[in-house]
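Task card 7
Instruction: Convert sequence to structure tokens.
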Amino acid sequence: MAKNTGLMKRCRAILPEQLVISLVAALSKGNCTSIADLLRQFNGMCLSPEDAVAYKLYHNQLRKDEFPKFMRQLVMRAIAQFARQQNVGLPDKLDTFDDVLLQDGSSFHIHYDLADVYPSRFKRNPAAVECHMTMSLKSFSLVAMSISADTASERDFLP
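Output:
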């Protein structure tokens, strides 16, 4: 997947699977506030001190244009696999429909310095993003996913 999105063209010191695992570990702790925290987690998971990487090298991986594309594909695949694991069949009365689509948006507050780009609807947190997702119940797969400012109209993201 990293090669398909262009994130990884050659085998480097930072492999995509190591990067993703360290990001999940760092962000799940709840106290990650900087790229330096992410880097500390990444280097802490290295098997030897020789495998540790410098800040600039790590930062360059995160700032690549292909990084958000890679993460988006990864999230879409994870959601699709999770949905398939649920494997709950639709009731017979829904068989008359070609498909049943679910659409929802969830709001997440982000760093207040991003308020100019991603303004929030709420005064308590000046910056927030809305993650919009559409899912097919027939195929248990993700149809569409997008991120916008929290103030954007939900109608623009309906199927």
